[in-house]
Design a protein that fits this description.
The protein is an alpha/beta fold. The protein contains 13 helices and 13 strands. The protein has a single domain, classed as TIM Barrel, CATH 3.20.20.80. The strands form 3 sheets. Strands 1-2-5-6-7-8-9-11 form an 8-stranded parallel barrel. The longest helix has 21 residues.
Length: 373
Amino acid sequence: MIKYSYFLLLIFAFACSAPQANDQEEVIDMPSETPKRTKFEPKDGKCIVFAGQELESIGGLEEYNDGYFDHFARPGGFTMYTKIRPGDEEFGFTYTGLAGVFTTDDWGDSPSNMSMQVADEDFKHSCLAIGLEMVNHEGAIARGELDSLVLALGNWLKSLGRRPVFLRIGYEFAGSWNHYNREDYITAYRRIKTMYDSIGVTNVAYVWQSHGSDEPMEHLAEWYPGDEYVDWCGYSFFSRWDEANMIEFARQHNKPVFIAEATPTISTATTKTNGKTKETILSNPEQAEEAWEEWFTPFFKTIHDNPDVVKAISYINCHWKSHPMWVNNPTFQDVDARLQSNKDIADKWSKEIAKDSYLNASPELFDMLWDGK
């Protein structure tokens, strides 16, 4: 009888202490799972600084010594270009192999030779971003007819070891100047990545870059190779930067953004119809001041306002108007974007990129990007 009474007492005590249906239960906020960062993506609030886009603009070499590397902190990366366009000719230069990779080549935009840079001590701790152009040949690449050139580039990239490479396949894909066939472009992009995966290229992040103006979301979706083929989304930040939708597109696909081409260009009343921008010579104090207000300020605001997405930028430190390729180009023909040509601009730039949020060259940079720190 005593044991039975004790048992009833236990049941009564449990019933009194158990939460009732209308009781307020403590809700414990469990931390939501943080999305896994993609290849070489720094953590939120960090942004890799790149400088481009040819030997004169970048400097840092014995022969080319008046560029970005010679006047500013060595950047976290440098941007160069190569083209798979066998047989095509531009400004007296005929494309054969991989222009600007193993040899010094000039297709109208001043000399390029990325092998020279990666062999130089000043570039030791800087990532490499490559714009890979395939204009007129995206169909041949898609069909496998130019696999030898694709593989030659892939094997060279692989030889760079732990140097992170950001490969912008068919950059500015929908720009009318490229006139890519959309289906061939997507197939070629996928083929290149698949081939590089098959030969064990592990030090490349694949960047899908738009031209950054007049790009509705549905337009971007039509050109998208797919999440499994894209590590980073990218776009160009020029005069019509306010028309870009790539940041929102990337956010929807959980991809970081690389502002892969950026140089101060200011719209005129006719920019939308004929591409013409204002004369912007940074050595001119009045024009430099306007450039800071109209271009640099919104450029940095874009970075500051999107720390979860914008993770890399590349400034084109170019004397555009002096290069044959751009003399007749309405967007760049009246632009000299060399930061070092104006002390005030140079000081403001240096002060901005010295902030902790920006990643410049350092012995720790590669490990940080490989380890996702």
